[in-house]
Amino acid sequence: MTGARRGRRGKDAVAQRREVDYRRLRNPFIPQTVFSEDSVEAIHQTALRVLEELGMKVLLPDARRRFRLSGALVDEDTMIVRIGRDIVEAALRSAPRAFAVRGGLKERDVPIELGALTFQVGAGSPNTTDIVRGRRPSTLRDFADLVRITQHYDALQMLSLGVEAQDVPTHLRHYAVLRAQLTLSDKVPYAFARSAMQARDCHEMIRIVRGASEDEFRATPYCMTVINTNSPRQLDIPMAQGIIDFAEAGQPSIVTPFCLMGAMAPVTVAGALTLSHAEALAGIALSQIARPGAPVCYGAFASNVDMRSGAPAFGTPEEVKANIGAGQLARRLGLPWRCAAGCAANVNDAQAAHETEMSAWGSVLAGATIVKHAAGWLEGGLTVSFEKLITDIEMVQTFAELCLETPADDGAIAFAALAEVPPGGHFFAAAHTMERYQTAFYEPIVADWSNFGKWTERGARDATQRAHDIWTRIVNEFSPPPIDAARIEELDAFIAKRTEAGGAPPVS
Amino acid sequence: MTGARRGRRGKDAVAQRREVDYRRLRNPFIPQTVFSEDSVEAIHQTALRVLEELGMKVLLPDARRRFRLSGALVDEDTMIVRIGRDIVEAALRSAPRAFAVRGGLKERDVPIELGALTFQVGAGSPNTTDIVRGRRPSTLRDFADLVRITQHYDALQMLSLGVEAQDVPTHLRHYAVLRAQLTLSDKVPYAFARSAMQARDCHEMIRIVRGASEDEFRATPYCMTVINTNSPRQLDIPMAQGIIDFAEAGQPSIVTPFCLMGAMAPVTVAGALTLSHAEALAGIALSQIARPGAPVCYGAFASNVDMRSGAPAFGTPEEVKANIGAGQLARRLGLPWRCAAGCAANVNDAQAAHETEMSAWGSVLAGATIVKHAAGWLEGGLTVSFEKLITDIEMVQTFAELCLETPADDGAIAFAALAEVPPGGHFFAAAHTMERYQTAFYEPIVADWSNFGKWTERGARDATQRAHDIWTRIVNEFSPPPIDAARIEELDAFIAKRTEAGGAPPVS
User: Fold this and answer.
1) How far is CA B6 from CA A307, B420, B428, B440, in A?
2) Residue B56: which residues within 8 A CB-CB, separation 6 or more?
3) Which of A268, A276, A443, A454 to mutate to test the interface with B (most CBs of B within 10 A)?
4) pLDDT of B200-237, one tens digit each?
5) I need a labelling partner for A359 at 20 to 30 A (CA). Which of A121, A303, B227, B455 fits?
6) pLDDT digits (tens, 9 = 90+) for A427-469
7) Is residue B338 classed as helix, strand or coil in its secondary structure?
8) In the predicted model, what is the mean pLDDT of chain A?
9) All domains of chain B, ordered by start, with CATH?
């Protein structure tokens, strides 16, 4: 930077701030393809055939009953439900193409539809790690810190299941975990679907804090949950119950088979997606049987295993291809859908970044509405790293920046500036630069662009070490958004009453 | 993995090997856009206006003379050459849309055209680093090791300038560096364009080793070079000379302005690309004036600076957008072109991986024919890291895998396998899996997918540490491809004669 420029800058009493809105992103990319249109149709038709001829094993009697009443062929001995394509097609007609999930503020409402793009942090991890305290079983404190960090960054539009608060007993965990979300954040919360009572509790807690009547709540999405099938072709009791409970309550569930090629799914991308597609369609059908028009998301999470050890792998070319193929299937249906990033590294290193970036790009190029596990995941989700959270949020923010327009008006094309600066000169002090430099570029959160000498002088700290400072500062300086104290009081009274009554255990 | 599977596998006397061909990749992605068609046209037209009205400062008298003879307006006092659009349009008509560069073997020939995809390692670095020897000025040994590693991986289809062999004096460096390429590798070499004598020497050395007659050499691309303009709007003596010499010799040059937004180029993406496009067109025009039909590549390398320090930044959203926009301009011309990945981190950490992956994805989605600096770059190119080279080659190979078809025939869709495995079962031992598992998935080079316990037991080594083992093994076990001993003898005699005669200094 020139002295002139520095001088001019020093005189700025108030520096201009770059203001960007990452809260409602539209995916700027043309969706990519790995299959021909004919192959997409063949996979879709084969998935319908899987549901008709092979069926799903559905462990919940009430779900089997509902499927039977809709015309499915149910064998009560084997619990196999064979679902005709008429049932699936009716569900695809009634499932909404678009809906919005309401946050604590209007600006936090999240549109869920093809073309929208949202990111969530890694979810479901039994362990948490950071470079000072090390790897340990996740606690409620870790969960709450994850909520604080999520609240801090607009590019994470929704909360996620985050880490498992293992220090809270399972019959009370949903109270603690949802309370943390509702009191530390005004973003769309994640609600548990581990038993009917837990779902009811969660819905009631959200209703209280959002100040919604029962009718309003039933008519408006206020939270999301994830339903995982037990691939291959099985829907267990809590998950089937969750689909029904969330659909009846008008709350969206995301039906996500987790299909590891070569393990719980065929070893080929097309085969794994055929299975995944069939299972997702079965879940979507159940949601629409429970309540036609209920908000629901298609989901896909397919990667491969290491065929030498059976260990799950992420960020592989097969996962990128599966993500892109899943996007083709989601567009075939016209439904909003979730995809995921992932990483199987054990530490926040170059492997970890590579795997998360590859699978995140796969999700974004696939046109996913929700990119789950986009930040923080290590070990295929067994651990969330607070430092990786921050280094991955740099990636998430970069994607968010790519959603912003790239101006190409006369001012941006800048002929006048090109005329102003002589050959071999520089643009540091050009009028065109002076007008724009404070807001021209994305400002990174963790990248250090200083030269090797300066970086060495400052302690030669890598991105992980710098990320540690960043997340701890966010947590230490955090103040929650304003939330009506009376509602929190009511929430706490509800939790106390339910705790008194014995809480609500998960079912299995 | 099940016991059954392990048992079956143990009995395989000879394991099947996965065979893939990374040598001639076709880009599988639909090119992305950041500008409307109208904006692309506006940038192109403004670039033509820049050349016509503002002109380029051309330091080489012979280049000015050639431009003048072609109808450009030349001011000998200011050395400004104003280039009419008729000259540029004639050049765009004569520049070839496609050519192939010949390697030492037919399988090493590299097609250069829109739709082809190639990767090169980081180039031009004065320093080299590895985690044992640390960061030091680059040497011929480092250069040679880089050639060995490049030769090892098919996904790096060409050699690159690599690191600067600073232990060899500049008047002899091109002999040593090109000799290393020609004796350690059968891939397309990088040739120097730092003076007319150096270019002539390089061409002669390649001609000798490839066994080409002078006519054959002049009719066939055998090497590539990079021409960097001095942005803004200046073409220096060696670069202008290089364009002329390579065009006359029938050898391709890649005309690459290096436009840092806010420093040597306007602070906007559209402005930087307008400048870059104008300069590239000027270089291409000179090549076609020197020899109509000479092979030439369009080039773009635009990123932004940190506006607080003026330091170059890479992997930023602005760079990704510039890459994609440059692709739109290259397609407007119809010419093959080079783009680049990049990274400004000081160490092979999560920042380094993030920046390289972002800019590499930008290049790939932009439809670049050549992705330079795709592996190994740190510090914005001031250093090549051997460990980052390996972790980035994992990324390059992942891109190469994404170029391969994703089968979706009946066998891949796998209805029979879905029927074979019961609900809740697994596919490890399915016939469909057994037939395919040995070759189904990409096998990573540096990723470690073992669980945290095993990884810890084995020493908790991160990707950088593992990469060190990998590159040192490649270098230690390296044996060069077979090259005719008589030709090497002739090459060495040529070098001896030229050295005796005083070598060939670069000009400036």
Assistant:
1) 10, 20, 10, 17
2) A423, B80, B81, B83, B229, B233, B234, B235, B278, B279, B282
3) A268
4) 999 999 999 999 999 999 999 999 999 999 999 999 99
5) B455
6) 999 999 999 999 999 999 999 999 999 999 999 999 999 999 9
7) strand
8) 95
9) 23-404+442-508 (3.20.20.480)
B-chain residues near A228 (CB < 8 A): none
Note the pLDDT of residue A302. Answer: 95
Could you list the beta-strand ranges (E) of A305-393. 337-340, 370-372, 377-378, 383-385
Question: Global pTM?
Answer: 0.97
* CA neighbor of A120 nearest in space, from A341, A314, A387: A341
Q: How far is A104 from chain B (nearest CA, A)?
A: 30
**Cα separation of B296 and B256, whole Å?**
11
Min distance B463 CA to chain A CA atoms (Å): 6
Most distant CA pair in chain A: distance in Å?
84
Strand pairing partners for B302? B259
Find residue B224's DSSP bridge partners. B190
Cα torsion B58, B64, B66, B70: sign? positive
| Alpha helices in A31-128, H assignment, sequence order | 37-49, 61-69, 85-94
Is A350 in contact with B345 (Cβ distance < 8 A)?
no
Taking the C-alpha atoms of residue B32 and residue B20, their distance in angstroms, rounded to an integer, is 27
CA–CA distance, A480 with B73 (Å, rounded to integer): 66
CA–CA dist A442, A404 (Å, integer): 11
* Alpha-carbon distance values, B450 to A265, A320, A358 (Å): 21, 21, 19
Q: How confident is the model at residue B6 (pLDDT cuts 50, 70, 90)?
A: very low
Please name the residues in contact with B44: beta carbons below 8 A apart, sequence gap of 6 or more. B277, B329, B332
The secondary structure element, H or E, covering residue A279 is helix A269-290
Res. A216 pLDDT band, cuts 50 70 90 = very high
**Residue that is written with structure tokens 């043309």 in the block:** A30
